[in-house]
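Dear support,

I submitted the protein below through the web form. The confirmation email said the job was done, but the results page showed an empty box. After a refresh the structure appeared. I'm attaching both so you can tell me whether what I see now is the final result or a partial one.
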Amino acid sequence: MGLFRVAVIVTAAALGLGLATPASADLACRKGQSFEAWLVGFKKQAEAAGVSRAAIEAGLAGVAFDPAIVRRDHGQGVFQQTFLQFSDRMVSPDRLSTGGRLLQTHAATLRRIEAQYGVPGPVLVAFWGLETSFGTDMGKYKAPTAVATLAYDCRRTDMFTRELIDLLRIVERGDLAPAEMVGDWAGELGHLMFTPTDLHTYAADGDGDGRRDVMRSIPDALATAANFLKGLGWRKGEPWLEEVRVPETMDWSRSAPEVALGRAEWARMGLTRSDGAALAAGGPPAQLWLPMGRLGPAFLTYPNFQAYLGWNKAMVYSTTAAYYATRLAGAPKVSRGRGEVKPLTTEQVKQLQGLLVRRGFGTDTPDGRLGNATRAAVRAAQMKLGLPADSWPTVELIAALEGAR
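What the results page shows now:
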């Protein structure tokens, strides 16, 4: 969650795409220091950070370097599915029916959580379904070993060192015993896959038993998720995502992320609800989000959508999670847009990124990932070349850039 699923990088194994490739540990920063020697030094660091010696010894008992964890981390693939491809798969009929049933089963708990944290039940249940299929797939990796391995590896040492110290603080607090900490390969735990740092910061007692057990207590897991979203800026009583219809005459540059307008202003530009009815009056400012450009579905995203991006920076995941929540709250199935949208291949995205850099629209090294920076550069190029500025990369844009002088 959040820290580990960033930009458009998603673990290939988690999505069943088969993209992961073997990778070797990057241990240049260790200069020959063994994992065991590093662990001795880390224990001193954790003690200096205020963790008790008892919690350190209990939390790290039996921990050993696991090269399979490093291969998972280094072997992440570029994820290029469109919003519709991803949401069609993840917001399945089964997830919708199961999510609806669980909303009823846990209605009293969810009402209590919403009253305390301001986060509606459909939002929490949608994350629950996406993260672990409602607790049926909570991982198989020992979190102390996984996090220690990634802290020893040189790729993201500082981040995972903080995560490991916070994991030990959870042990010290008594919320979870080390043997109970079994989760995803990057150390995420529980029904909604919390990182140790997020769990240490936001863990909540949702069932009133005095513990914060996100592994076995569904109320604790849901309350923790709500507390986390509140910490990310969730605003009680406000929407998060709304599908809209956009006229073909739209000034597509208005879909830039820095443009936030009231519903009345969007209505004056011709936007309506997805069923053609007028947009509701009032409400907070919203941004027009075109996840697949002007030919695909269109949404208004409200300030609460930023909490989704705090949970997971990948726009395709965050949009899918927000859309799933609207479906559980009663919204209809998303439209298919007004035309076929073909995503570029990874190699085509790299080619486009290279052209954008050469033409002065981008600065990042081409990597084949369609992230926010690339979409902003695409929009700038489209505006310069007189193309519809919807931030969506196309072969037509590549051809125009190749012909530009």
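Response: this is the final, complete result; the empty box was a page-load delay. The CA atoms of residues 34 and 152 lie 9 Å apart.
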